[in-house]
Amino acid sequence: MAGMPCERVREHLSDYVDRELPPAIDQRVSAHLKGCDACREEVRALRALVAASAARGSRTIPRDITDAVMARIASAPITVPWWRRIARPVLAVPASAVVAALLVLTLLSPRVPPGHGPMVSSAVDHEITMAKDYAIFRSEQAFSGGDGVLLFAELTGKGGHEPKP
Fold this sequence. Notes:
It is a single chain. By secondary structure, this protein is mostly helical. Among the domains are: 6-56, no CATH class; 120-156. It is built from 7 helices and no strands. The protein is flat, with a radius of gyration of 40 Å. The model is unreliable at 161-165 (pLDDT under 50).
């Protein structure tokens, strides 16, 4: 068996200390610990932690702990810094004014009828129509190469882009 690197051994040290490793891994960890001072020190520290925890014993948490904590939180005074007491109304008024102004502008802005707004989608539609027209033209003509494109543009008056209004 090849030796385990320290990183891999550290993943198993807690289970090693608790004697919960499968025998094959336990043997590999033990073999590593014989030659690694750092990992042996970590095992010693884990065992000391387990012993200290066992010495403290276990404590039972009262069942009504949640109610007691919540009652204490409810009875605690709430303190708000002076600057927050001032900042809320001072900032709320301008923010409300901005929201109201945006609402008024939205409601009063002129409506643009479909087809009269930005021509982004109509430019795409134009290109698709051009491609379809050219495909039909090419299927009906016996031209090859770029001659068909030029003739198509001359015959249809579609030079590739519509003039801007």
